[in-house]
Amino acid sequence: MKELIKSTYFKFGLTIFISGGALILLFEAVNNWNSVGTGWDTLYTIVSPFIYGLVMAYLLCPVYNATVRRMYGLTKDNWRTRRGALRYARIMATIVALLVLFGVVGGLFALILPETVRSITGLVQTMPERVNSLIDWFMSLSVNQNNPEMAKAIETVINHTTESFMDWAENTLLPSLGDYMSKTFLGVWVTLKTVMNLLIGVIVCVYFLNSKEKFKAQAKKTIMALCSKEKADDLFELANYSNMQFGGFINGKIIDSAIIGVLCFILMSLIGLPYTVLVSTIIGITNVVPFFGPFIGAIPGTLIILLESPVQALYFVVLIFGLQQFDGNILGPKILGETSGLASFWVMFAILVGGGLFGFPGMILGVPTFAVIYYYSSKFLRKKLKRKNMAEDTEEYMEFNKYDINRKDVL
To answer: Which end of the chain is more exposed for a tag (fewer CB within 10 A), N or C?
Structure first.
């Protein structure tokens, strides 16, 4: 029996059987995609506290590790056993990590939330007046330029927009108030549930922080038991490289976005632009998204300031363009370095694909995920080329014959 299991034919048949089963499962999943999506949403709802806890633990890990290292170094000679010193260092590190978590979140809410609410309230209260002022400004601009066609076109657009809004309010908004109310209550319930999941996530975060070495050891033991030493070493290298990519990128991007948000607030205050806290918060949050972040945040920021003053909105656009150049060419490379190792084209590709598949989280995590895939794909191809005694450098395969240029002259 053992000889049969070890035979090539048995392994080949088992491979075909597993592949066939996988294809059947894939076919059924595609045919019942709605059921799969519902099941996935249910599974995500169940495990969301663990996801929140893992994310918080991952972000707080540098603080926790630094505190354990420092406290253990200070107290290891004052305890009877080194195990007791380590336990004490873990307790203190957990307290410090939680203080950092609650301090950052509470500080952001205390600094940003009141001013943001005040800005939004003032914006809603003054919006009709600002819209009328903006319309008058456009009309006066067309009149001053002796352009009756522009004035007529603006008036037509305004009348059409007003009629469309009144029609929407009468035929869509009023009959659907009941649905909107139910959706509002559903939103409140989802918010409360999310808060509860976050609180459970904090408990999960504490557990992960204090048990990560054990989890790592269990995973390592399982991999070494099931895989050959060569495969196990490859998996460990993959885990270390992925951790370096994700940790460096996420932590660096958070720091970079915080600095950009603060700089935006300072510069807007110096120029005298309105809604500084609200707009700076939007810019800081959206800047977490690589490449497109500043432009995503600039759109709502420009519209908000436009209601106050078109000229100030123009100043804001120039300010954001300058911040984007500073972040892309100076601040970002200093903080992030070359963590991704991707060309600009692949960065944009990773953001678009990740955002299309997984929304906002996909736009953030798409770059480090694709960086890992790109790195190991390149490593696999280099290994194959090396076995064939072929050049591994990409430049060796570039041709400029269409330009009548010798490759050696330009590379």
So the answer is: N
